[in-house]
Amino acid sequence: MTEAYVKHTIEDGIATVTFFHPDQNSLPGTILAQLSETITRVGQQEDVNVIILQSGGERTFCAGASFKELITINDAATGKTFFSGFANVINAMRKCPKFIIGRIQGKTVGGGVGLAAATDYCMATKFASIKLSELNVGIGPFVVSPAIERKMGVSAMSQIAMDANTFYEATWAQKKGLYTHVFDSIDALDEAVLAFAKHLCTYNPEAMREMKQVFWRGTDDWDSLLAERAAISGRLVLSDFTKETLKKFNTPA
Description:
The protein has helices at 29-43, 67-70, 76-95, 111-118, 145-152, 154-162, 170-175, 186-200, 205-215, 222-236, 240-249, and strands at 5-11, 14-20, 50-55, 99-104, 108-109, 121-125, 130-131, 181-183. The protein is α/β, with parallel strands linked by helices. It has one domain: 2-enoyl-CoA Hydratase, Chain A, domain 1, CATH 3.90.226.10. It has a 6-stranded mixed β-sheet, with helices on both faces. It has a two-stranded parallel sheet with strand order 5-7. Strand 2, helix 1 (29-43) and strand 3 form a beta-alpha-beta unit. The two termini are 24 Å apart.
């Protein structure tokens, strides 16, 4: 697999949305836009009862924002637009009337942790350690932190945001509420995700829609909040600190 994509399948009421990027499933603006559009569209389909969100490949779930795209940003408006891509995906997941199950097969970084936190029920393998690396490059997890804080609490979110060099084990993330279950293998994860999705399909769709609204109570301001956070990141990505750091990451060895 060499071409980035977002695709989905629908079978027996279960929609599986899959994103992929050859650079460890990093997220450029194009993939973010396709993700938000796909989640919104699939969530409105009457033949869909539940959505599974996953990434392609067997190693990294998501490497976060595309550094290659970040280094090309030269003005605040473009920066805000890029980071608004993460805001749009999280808000699409929040507003989606269907439950979203996260399938996290491997390490996830930065914005990827935000995606996992924005799912309604998230399962992972023991290899799915997490890291918020944004402070390392002079930005900060501004857009995704509301979703992470909502799922894991302020203490856990601030810990991983400040300790930006460290990967935290999947079992730690489970104890903090990000993951509901942690499995020893991808096969075991896939079996559990599918079984749970099938079970959800036996529930009353109307009851699940109402329950989803209850789960996300208190987030009605996220359209404006995440846009404000995107503007902060869009400004900080222009800093000399961030520009020099990104150059180091994008310099061939």
